[in-house]
Amino acid sequence: MTAPPFLTQSDLPSRPDWTRLVAALEAGHKAHRAEIADVFLGPPERTLLSRAARIPGMGSGVKSVTVVPENAAREMPTIQGAMLIFDDATGRHMATLDSAVVTNLKTVADSLLGAKLLARPDCRRLLIVGAGSVAETLAAAYPVIFPGLEQIEIWNRTPHNAEVLAKKLSSSSVPVTAIQDLKAAVPEADIVATATMARAPVVLGDWLQPGTHLDLIGAFRADMREVDDTALKRARLFVDSRDTTLDHIGELKMPLAAGVISPGDILADLYDLAEGKPGRTAPSDITIFKNGGGAHLDLMIAFAIVESAGTI
Among 14, 53, 104, 111, which one has the highest count of C-beta atoms within 10 angstroms of its own C-beta? Predict the structure, then answer.
């Protein structure tokens, strides 16, 4: 029997097909709801995280990664791992994928789908808060889904990092510039995408103008937030999955615990939106989409990767 393939970045096209990946996520949310489960083992400095999911009719998968922050001092990756996917009908092991490939594509495609469903279609100006690898991918991917974009701005706590990324993206089809005044830039943006490691809000609700869409990516732990209570109270609130955000991520967990918002203020997740539940109801709405991730999203993207690689 031929061994299942192991897919890495070198096996994929140099430019991801974002339209296809977003369509895969959208189709996945119109199918059966996924079963998901996470397992954490070990101390914080050497954690093994395994995220499993099963989607009836599609298949199942588990992504396991080690998270070792001290590896940065060893000049080694801090996150390493792999994802296995299995056929739903037979249980056949179909492929193993480098976890980084799945995670990177899943994270950005998740945000793109949220923006496609919630942002104004005539968006012209994108502001990216952060200057890491996710920010770089966002700058390349957003214009595919929003071809009317005319300007991309990048802000980072360390201005030099924003300047370096803007220079790296100088050949982009959409002009990319580094900015230093975040307070002045937010009111001018149609979409604000945050991809930071912030533990306290960096974007304030008082800065927001009617019609803005906020794409919140960075906060992934219970002690992390990227926007303040005012932003949450001014906006229509959406998440990719209630199961992976409300009780786990500080962006929502902290204001829920404080009574600033209630569970009913979370108007829909991607499953609800795929079923036709209202998202943006007027051009003046401020919308917030919390990108929390989840094993079911990894699974949808992994199957799309394997299909495009022609290994099924």
Answer: 111
Residues 36 and 152 in one domain: no
CA distance 61 to 53: 6
Are the C-beta atoms of 102 and 77 separated by less than 8 Å?
no
91-135 pLDDT, tens digit each: 999 999 999 999 999 999 999 999 999 999 999 999 999 999 899
Residues in the chain: 312
Asked whether residue 45 falls in the same domain as residue 130, the answer is no
Helix axes 133-145, 99-118, angle to 10 degrees: 40
Residues 94 and 168 placed together within one structural domain of the fold: no
Query: Is 227 a member of any domain?
Result: yes
pTM for the full model? 0.93
pLDDT tens, position by position, 4-49: 888 988 888 888 999 999 999 999 999 999 999 988 898 877 889 8
Judge whether 108 lies within some domain. Answer: no
Per residue in 5-25, is it b (16+ CB within 10 Å) or e — as a string? bebeeeebeeebebeebbebb
Q: pLDDT per residue over 161-171, tens digit each? A: 999 999 999 98
155 backbone dihedrals φ, ψ, rounded to 5°: -125, 145
Same domain, 133 and 257: yes
Residue 212 lies in a domain: yes
Tell me how far apart the alpha carbons of residues 299 and 58 are, in angstroms, rounded to a whole number: 9
Q: Is residue 207 part of a domain?
A: yes
Tokens of 222: 């219970």
Enclosing domain of residue 44: 6-103+296-308
Q: Are 98 and 118 in a shared domain?
A: no
Task: Give dist(CA 194, CA 228) in Å, integer.
Answer: 13
User: Closest Cα to residue 295, out of 250, 241, 215?
Assistant: 241
| Alpha-carbon distances of 21 from 27, 270, 301, rounded to whole Å | 10, 15, 7
